[in-house]
Design brief:
single chain; 96 residues; alpha+beta; 2 domains; 30% helix
């Protein structure tokens, strides 16, 4: 049986899928490099008094966010900082 060029369309699909995964791997590696470069940069401003705080008490993952609980030394209140893809998304004061 002779194979025709039209029968090799699956080869093009494989190449397309390979490019897709190569792009995803490059994006993940870029994100990992960014996160590693930002490890020492944990300064977040308190939403109440705008003082920069760096030490967090607790951290956890919530859906697409990575959440850190901070306590401000100046106003002695707690707040949560939400990170998405390694970047600070927003802060929310913790209700008492």
């Amino acid at each position: 049986m002779r194979v025709k060029p039209n029968d090799l369309s699956l080869n093009g699909l494989v190449k397309k899928e390979t490019r897709h995964y190569e792009t995803r791997i490059k994006n993940l590696m870029s994100t990992k490099r960014y996160l590693k470069s930002q490890e020492g940069n944990n300064m977040v401003k308190c939403p109440r008094c705008s003082k920069e705080v760096s030490n967090f008490e607790r951290e956890w993952d919530y859906s697409v966010f990575h959440v850190k609980l901070f306590e401000c030394d100046r106003c002695e209140k707690s707040f949560k900082a939400y990170y998405r893809a390694g970047k600070l998304s927003h802060t929310i004061p913790k209700s008492l």
